[in-house]
Amino acid sequence: MNKFWGTHHAHRDGASTDGDARVDPICGMSVMRSNAAAIRTDGDVEYFFCSNGCAVAFDTDHAH
Ligand SMILES: [Zn+2]
User: Fold this and answer.
1) Model-level pTM greater than 0.90?
2) Which residue has the higher pLDDT, 2 or 20?
């Protein structure tokens, strides 16, 4: 079906979200690496945050 093909092609073009987007664990927004206000790593998992406030909330959560 054409619709499926279009989607697949768009994905491989790479202009949009998939590859680099993560869900901000605090507010649930989808954040791209290039748009992230802050990045935290936990082991080998990276978290991207929409704002510094979310990163601080994450730090607080993981501090204890
Ligand atoms: Zn956020």
Assistant:
1) no
2) 20
